Amino acid sequence: MGAKSAGASMISQSKADRRNHAGQKRAARREELMRKKRGLDGLPAPPRVVGILSLGHNIKIEDQVKSFILESADKTLNLHANFDATVTCKFDTYKKSGGLTLLTCRSSFAHHGDGDDAAVLAALDMARVCDALIFVIDGNGGRVDDKIMEINIGEDDQSSSTNRSTYGMDWSHLISERGDRMLTAIKSQGLPTPLSVLAMTEKEALEVDDQMTVRSVKSFRRSSIKRSLDLKRYVGRFAATEFGRDNGRVLEIDLTGSEEISFEDTDDARKIRKEKGADALVRTLCSMSCSAAKWVANSPRGYILSDSYNLDTATNELKITGYVRGIAPFDVNSLVHVPGLGAFKCQSLTKIPSPLQRQKTDAMEIIHGGTIASKPELQEPLEMFANPDCLDGEQNLIGFDDHESLGEGESDTNGDFARPEGWTDYQSSWLDGVEKVDFESETDFGELADELNKKSSRSDMSVTSDVMDVEDSDLGFAEERRVLAEQRRKEQTNNQQFPDEVEVEENEKAQQRFARYRSLKNFRKSHWDPKENLPDSYASIYHFASFKATQRSVMNEMREVIQAAEAAKGKFFGHSIATVEDSDAEDFLDGCIPTGSYVQLTLAGVDPKLLSSISTTALLVAISLLPHENKASVLHIGLSQPTKHEQTEDEPIKSKDLLTFRCGWRTWQARPVFSQNNLNCDKHKYERFLPQGGAFFAASIFGPVTYTPCPVLVFRETTKAGSRQLVATGSIIGADADRIVVKRIILTGYPVRVHKRHATVKYMFGNPEDVKWFKPAGLYTKHGLQGNIVESVGEHGTMKCLFNAPVKQHDTICLPLYKRIYPKFAQAIGDRKKDGMTYRETYTLTIR
Fold first, then answer.
1. What's the pLDDT tens digit per position in 279-317?
2. 41-50, 121-130, 730-739: range with lowest mean pLDDT
3. Cα(338)–Cα(382) distance, rounded to whole angstroms?
4. Helices (H) and strands (E) in the chain, counts
5. What confidence score (pLDDT) does residue 393 get?
6. Residue 163, phi then psi, degrees to nearest 5
7. pLDDT range class, residue 698, cuts 50, 70, 90
8. What's the DSSP call for residue 162?
9. Distance between CA 846 and CA 335 in Å, rounded?
């Protein structure tokens, strides 16, 4: 008999053995979890990053809470030039997780300026790097309707009471409009582990009167206690509603000074309660399970939050000092993005002793000198745009192979007709079936476009493509802006009442106005070549054969790097120990430094003017970019309006308006093209205005390649200078230059004479030439009939039409036309010259 299987051997074990085996598995999992929480070689992990954010009107309370935490710290470090920017403290009671790095919204990321809009951006920057975020609510902020309405004082016990109905107070005034905007934006971007704190900044002083008795004092005390309980219940409900029931816990702290006298407690009692509040807050921060936002915690990108930084103006080298954070090791050969500055090449990484630990020399540091230099041959170029050479083949394709240039089923002949010399399969397919109309045909390969999509002259097309909307110009007068807003509102109303309908004037030629449009038999099934008549801007961007396959390949490679780092247990520096023993083994950790290390990152080519635009008191973050993430392409983003929409302006947002996109770690301006996201179709209908009412839609923009998942926040500049409004939130769908966004227009006419399936239609065209031009196009009615144009009648655009069923007199005849829409760059830098020749205008993307 063969050996028993593993399952049979487990069954044969005794109950004690099975219990012991399960205990060993639990211990192994616990040890692995603790190893990940610890730092290198069993040392404590890097200090947790804790952000402090005030949701009320009192902004200075953030500094008060930070000072409240630092009072009980055993060790405090101020590595940044500005004490308010970042403070790292150590609590010896918590051996492994007693390090905290405290940040505040008003000082740590203050380079956005002043005002509520700057506070929202600063809060978003802080939320990206925090492991835990403290939301502070001032219990004494802006009191309204909290006075005792009625107090009866008398000898009877029942007479000394308060009106219970007066305690149904509204505490919503504690959350300011600024705090509500910040909370909405942070939740849309991604929320780290939240912690709600109710801070009492002042005490109610008892005004002692000669007529007040002991019972009246007790009544005041009871009313104060009841008010405190009601306030804490409100904050608890608020936390449970905003952050979930699991994060509904509220900590109460006392920030009052010792000189204030309260009728509730003596100085000793208040001091004891204050110490208990501080101990509870510190214990919660050091012992609770916390992590950054999911898109940050699960992303295979290492990043460094600066403790300090300095710029060498002689060599333009920026040195950033801090801990390596994230699940993936930091690669010295990857490009580095610094929010607010841009992307740079990493020159070197130097491992230095952590300021919170005893100086300990690692054996790997002795071998390599503690510094890893980058390898230029392994680094990607900083140039975002492709510069293809027509004589050297395409150079802006990613994931394309030469043997895949022709499909497996392609042939050079077509059985229906003879192909003209030099025509491809796609071009020749336009000739089939131009003169015939088949209602039963369910497939269409663009046969009608030869008649409807003849190219106009080059000059006409260039003028049409370069015409900018009136709203794109810089309108400096309030009256012009008001007129423009009124015109937009009228256009949006008309578009909602009559979607896509266009009116042709009597003396206007439709064949010239709609020369770039084509007709489709079936929007879902008709063929449209994604490589046809691409604009010049598409020559400068990168095209993916399959973005999902490229992302899958990059993520699998990073997964192998993470697994190799976990197998090495942090004992590597520039390369793994296995490759030192076996030179033939593939080194996934080449140029990598483990997460949790305290390093100094050196970036080359940093312009001092860029750094001068950022406040010296603000912090910097250096993020390692994945392959291809510094290449420009067409990004598609799934968006919807936030639940709490900021109604600062009622001017509609139109496609190709200038908007600011905040995608993960990077921010830039773009002119999006809005469209529906059709899941079962290769064509997506263009939307003229941003959809309202929480509808889901897609936006196509030019931008750097970004892998999913990645949150996106969309802002627009309002008429108020420097003011920004959050208009949409969502996430990245992918990067695909072949996604077809089609604009539809509908020409309408009305039957003036009807006989069964025949109808005489007027008011669609104004001359017989247009009727002949659009004769191959299909028609439909608003009652669901299908038809076609038979012939022109008279000299005023009247035509005879035939439908597949009897048509009614009150029906409306529609002729749909389509053309492809492309996104625009936010800005161009003019014509470029190369080898004595002038090329079309080049484009740029300013990524911050």
1. 888 888 888 888 889 999 888 999 999 888 888 888 888
2. 41-50
3. 13
4. 19, 35
5. 54
6. -75, 115
7. very high
8. B
9. 16
Q: Judge whether residue 368 has pLDDT over 50.
A: no
Q: What angle do CA 465, 467, 472 make, to 5 degrees?
A: 125
Q: Is residue 214 over pLDDT 70?
A: no
Q: What is the DSSP letter of 773?
A: H
For range 596-618, the mean pLDDT: 85
The candidate with the shortest Cα–Cα distance to 599, out of 417, 788, 330, is: 330
pLDDT at 41 over 70: no
State the average pLDDT for the chain: 76
Segment among 237-241, 487-491, 679-683 with least mean pLDDT: 487-491
Between CA 806 and CA 783 the distance in angstroms is 11
Identify the pLDDT of residue 440.
40
Structure tokens at 737: 């230059």
Does residue 524 contact residue 461 with C-beta atoms inside 8 Å? no
Confidence bin at 713 (pLDDT 50/70/90) = very high
Q: Residue 453 is which amino acid?
A: N
For the range 108-115, what are the long-range contacts, defined as Cβ-Cβ under 8 Å and sequence gap of 24 or more?
108/51, 108/84, 108/618, 108/619, 109/618, 109/619, 110/615, 110/617, 110/618, 111/340, 111/613, 111/614, 111/615, 111/618, 113/722, 115/722, 115/723
- Which range (3-17, 101-115, 356-370) has the least confidence? 356-370
Instruction: Supply 726's token pair.
Output: 């959050």
Tell me which range, 10-24, 248-262, 502-516, 626-640, is most confidently predicted by mean pLDDT.
626-640
- Helix, strand, or coil (residue 572): coil
In angstroms, the CA 451 to CA 379 distance is 50
pTM for this entry: 0.78
Residue of 626, 733, 564 lying closest to 301 (CA atoms) = 626
Contact 508, 765 (CB under 8 A): no
Rounded-to-integer distance, Cα 465 and Cα 825, Å: 13
Contacts of 665 (CB under 8 A, 6+ apart): 128, 303, 337, 339, 621, 623
Q: What residues form DSSP beta bridges with 704?
A: 632
With a CB cutoff of 8 Å and minimum separation 6, the contacts of 572 are 329, 364, 565, 589, 592, 594
Q: Which residue has the higher pLDDT, 392 or 146?
A: 392
Residues 355-365 as b/e (b if ≥16 CB within 10 A, e otherwise) read ebeeeeebebb
Angle at 97 between CA 29 and CA 351, to 5 degrees: 95
Looking at residue 31, what is its pLDDT?
66
- Whether 843 and 537 have beta carbons less than 8 Å apart is answered as yes
CA proximity to 629, closest of 560, 741, 547: 547
Residue 416: its pLDDT value, please? 45
pLDDT of 463 > 50? The answer is no
Alpha-carbon distance of 842 to 407, in angstroms, equals 33
Judged by average pLDDT, the poorest of 231-240, 318-327, 647-656, 687-696 is: 647-656
- Would you call 180 exposed, middle or buried from its count of C-beta atoms within 10 A (0-12, 13-18, 19+)? middle
Is the CB of residue 44 less than 8 Å from the CB of residue 38? yes
Q: What is the 3-state secondary structure (H, E, C) of 820-843?
A: EECCECCCEEEEEEECCEEEEEEE
Distances in Å between the alpha carbon of 500 and those of 709, 818, 819? 34, 11, 13
| CA separation for the pair 89, 78 (Å, rounded) | 9
Asked whether the CA dihedral 136, 137, 140, 142 is positive or negative, the reply is: positive
Going by their DSSP bridges, the two strands 48-54 and 99-104 should be labelled as: parallel
What's the rounded Cα separation, in Å, for the pair 368 and 574? 8
Q: Are 116 and 123 in contact (CB under 8 A)?
A: no
Residue 420 to residue 555: CA distance in whole angstroms: 47
Tokens matching residue 739 = 């996604």
